[in-house]
Amino acid sequence: MKIPEVNIPLWLNIIKIANNPLNHLDAISKKYGNIFIINFGETPIVFVSDPQAIKQIFTNTKDIKTPGELNAEAALITGNQGILQLDGLRHKHRRKLMMPAFHGVKMQAQGKLICNLTKQVMDEYLASKTFIAYPTIEEITLQISMKVVLGLQEGERYEKLKYLLPTILKSMRSPIMQTTSFLPFLQKDLGKWSPWGYLLHLRQEIFDLLYAEVQERRQQTDTTRSDILSELIFARDEMGELMTDEEVRDLLLSPLFAAQDASAVAITWLLYWVYRQPQVREQLLQELATLGNSPDPMSIAQLPYLSAVCNEVLRIYPAQLFTFPRRVESPIELMGYDLAPGTLIMGCIYLTHQHPDLYPNPQQFQPERFLEKQYTPYEFFPFGGGARSCIGAALAIFEMKLILATILSNYELTLVKKQPEQPKFEGLMCYPASGVKMHISTKTPRPSAETSAPLCV
User: Fold this and answer.
1) Number of domains within the chain
2) Which of 206, 310, 352, 421 could in theory staple to 49 by disulfide, Cβ–Cβ 3.0 to 4.6 A?
3) Tell me, what CATH number does 250's domain have?
4) Residue 365 maps to a domain
5) Average pLDDT per run of 10 along the chain, which is 457 residues long?
6) Is the residue at 75 inside a domain?
7) Phi, psi at residue 242, to the nearest 5°?
8) Which domain does 180 fall in, by range?
9) 50 and 335 Cβ atoms separated by less than 8 Å
10) Which residues pair with 415 in a beta bridge?
11) Beta carbons of 273 and 238 less than 8 angstroms apart
């Protein structure tokens, strides 16, 4: 028995994914079920959305591997020694080095920073009365990522990276660059006035700035700093040796981009859904009020309804639609089908999150479902799973909660557009097509500087 194969020309499949990915995936799933093959040129990929199959993919690390070579395209902006490109012991060790910065006491220390940056950026839009949510939130998450990952606060290097990081992401999301990913012959460096040459120019600028920062910080030998860069500079590799400056630089790139871009996408969707459904917003405000006037960030992060709202946003429009690819190394059986060595597999996060038996009325925004049921990591996995799960997932959720809580407590927002927001797929992520335009005004009454204003919100 052969796995069903999606019978559609490559060019048409690319257009459908680019223009309306969710409807396209819904249609494929309705016709072919929980497992199907899509051919991308000469490379067939098996897509899976059944939770038991997802569990097998994430846990059978003997027969199903996650080689870094399958993420080779990402090396363009994450470097050849980034966390996505590493394998085996090196990959496991580097993840272990980086994880503490995204959990526990170190992340708790970032809570006040997240709230203060949110207010600082949002206040800038009060005079204009309107703002576009996605670039605004991206500005907040960019500053957070630069401070948490790099420990940069100000100065010429900070300003240059603040410009270059979102610029290279915009360049990669442009229609012509999306086309080059499927047509490699267009990837020619004809100088920085050509699309590919400009992308390489931006990449080199970022690499040079980060490399210079690594070298400078290694000379400072300041062991009191808690950012990821400082930890990696003094960390020992699996052989007990200090890592090279190039290794440290490349390890910074994935969390730097993820903390900025994926978080901004998720938080923009969060604002859209919360302000589209007044009853959700009202319940969130009531829950926040139970913490009193001086809630600390960790207390906010533990609120159950706030957590449910964030989870429902990540379920209905996950920031990335698919897991990173895996490769079958030994013959296995998956959902009754025999898979030969060399077969490529990807979990479809979106389709799993749309299973009606797991999530009744899956296209409706219902945060209560996460209060009524505990989902397994194979039923709900917005940041992927297994060895390739997103290293910054905890920080992303923490940002979502604190940024939303800060906005709810300090500003009155309304959606400008009454029509439903449409998703737009670029790269691996699903963006709100319009960016979500909103009206903004100051919430009244607002505590003055002399009163005991809330620590975080």
Assistant:
1) 1
2) 352
3) 1.10.630.10
4) yes
5) 85 76 90 91 89 96 89 78 83 80 69 90 92 94 88 89 89 72 67 82 93 90 78 81 89 83 91 96 96 87 97 92 93 94 95 96 96 96 90 87 95 93 77 92 56 48
6) yes
7) -65, 145
8) 66-318+353-442
9) yes
10) 438
11) no
